[in-house]
Amino acid sequence: MCGIVGIVSQHQVNQEIYDALTVLQHRGQDAAGMVTSDGAKLHLRKANGLVRDVFRQEHMQRLVGNIGIGHVRYPTAGTSSSAEAQPMYVNSPYGITLAHNGNLTNAEQLKADLFAADLRHINTNSDSEVLLNVFAHELQRQRAFDPSPAEIFTAVAGVHHRCRGAYAAVAMIIGSGVVGFRDPHGIRPLVYGRRESEQGTDYMLASESVALDLQGFELMGSVLPGEAVFISNQGEIHRQVCADHTRLVPCIFEHVYLARPDSIMDDISVYKSRLRMGEYLAAQVLAHYGQREHDIDVVIPIPDTGRTAALPLARQLDVKFREGFVKNRYIGRTFIMPGQQERKKSVRQKLNVIELEFKDKNVLLVDDSIVRGTTTQQIIQMARDAGARKVYIASAAPALRYQNVYGIDMPAREEFVAHQRTDEEVAQIIGADWLVYQNIEDLKKSAHEGNPEVDDFECSAFDGQYVTGDIDDAYLQQLSLARSDQMKQRRDAELLADANILELHNHA
Question: What domains does the chain contain, in order, with CATH numbers?
């Protein structure tokens, strides 16, 4: 999962890209980057770290131009090498730079083809560099001195023909403009909008609509599956669906956890989706009790994404909704920390308990999802330590049992607490008196009610069904190995060793 943005404006765009990346920071905290163009040259800054740390005043002063793209990175394979920070650049043809959100499932085959047939060298392990070079090669095949929108769309069609998996991308072609495109299933989100001023019309592409809202852009809609939106340097917008077979199957996890609640994606309000998840989840809780009266005294959300679903759930159960945890917002997400020990250590640093909301009560905790169960286990123990008589837990998402292959950094499937376990076994492991998961059909309905035109939702982490049709067990085994905690810790150790060697060399 990453955040991307592209702007074509009548004035300098560096500050607006910076602000947009700050709003999209939740989509990636590993690295950030921005590239701008004054029509003739590129100006690039990218590095590991948060947006506020990567871009200093001296960098912003050099990022001149009225066209640019930006990226916040969340590594799906666990590596945090600064060499894979985006946007990425190739100088042929024209000079192209690209920012990508998603994961190419045939990246290794594409890398081999790029070397053997296209005579292009890939310098990192990033599939984003692969995507950039495929697009660059397809554009070079047009053999145009100044590529027209039609020739750019033909190049995007070539990308769709060769690439598999999930990808939403923005690319800047020097001297031409910015193009945004989305895979034929529309798995990863991409929206676009415009802003009118006395100087003319400005356009923005971004992962989420909140980036547009912040800058005063009017949301025009989502980029369609297989569609490309090209905005020329002159501020003209062109659109075309470039894939033969398209189907709108966006990732449901955007609505469960990834996206900000104030975003709109594919004409669906994330906030309203999460409210409906709470309503459907209440029905699951009541079904657990059958004809008996429930004994829940209070509903308490696990901050932050559990809050929206917890509100209607409490109302449906006719019990009090209370805040029982206070979050320290200056501690990083446990979800993206590389090892189990770091995650365990950080939970109590991140959350503090309001004891009076737990003491002598039967508490229903509500979370957006349960991944490894380590964090949930500690939170349940914190509730018990605060004096709760019983601790129940409800998950707004179904049980996570399968690998995600489309750009979300989830652990190896064997590390999911629900993998090959019953709900009762999971409840026992995490220490809950009982556990209720959302029904997968209800989860789909929660989002589908916002836009009945959506064909389906990508739910592979819950049901093991992969919409691209190219995923086999060998691929999943390889991915599990790459994303395991053990492998991530080994990569971190190698990166640290490399950094130490470089430091010693610099001091020699």
Answer: 3-247 (3.60.20.10), 275-329+338-442 (3.40.50.2020)
Q: What is the pTM of this model?
A: 0.90
Place of tokens 């984003």: 128
Orientation of helix 423-430 relative to helix 374-385, angle to 10° = 60
Q: Could you report the per-residue pLDDT of 6-56, keeping only the tens digit for each?
A: 999 999 999 999 999 999 999 999 999 999 998 888 999 999 999 999 999
Long-range contacts of 118-123 (CB under 8 A, 24+ apart): 123/83
Output the furthest CA–CA distance in the chain (Å, rounded): 76
Handedness of CA 478, 483, 489, 494 (dihedral sign): positive
- Nearest CA-CA partner of 6 in 70, 95, 64, 96: 70
Q: Which token pair is 220?
A: 């025009």
In this structure, how many other beta carbons lie within 10 angstroms of the beta carbon of residue 286?
A: 14
Torsion angles phi and psi, residue 318, rounded to 5: 60, 45
The packing angle between helices 270-289 and 306-317, to 10°, is: 40
Instruction: Report whether 407 contacts 364 (CB < 8 A).
Output: no
Instruction: Tell me the three state secondary structure of residue 115.
Output: helix
Token pair recorded at residue 186: 């529309």
Helix, strand, coil tally for the chain in percent (to 5): 40, 25, 40
Q: Distance between CA 240 and CA 226 in Å, rounded?
A: 9
- Report the candidate in 367, 488, 359, 377 with the shortest Cα–Cα distance to residue 429: 377
Omega before 225 within 30 of 0, i.e. cis: no
For residue 2, indicate whether it is catalytic.
yes
Q: Identify the residue whose tokens are 């829940």.
A: 296
Q: 2, 163, 242, 251: which is the annotated catalytic residue? A: 2
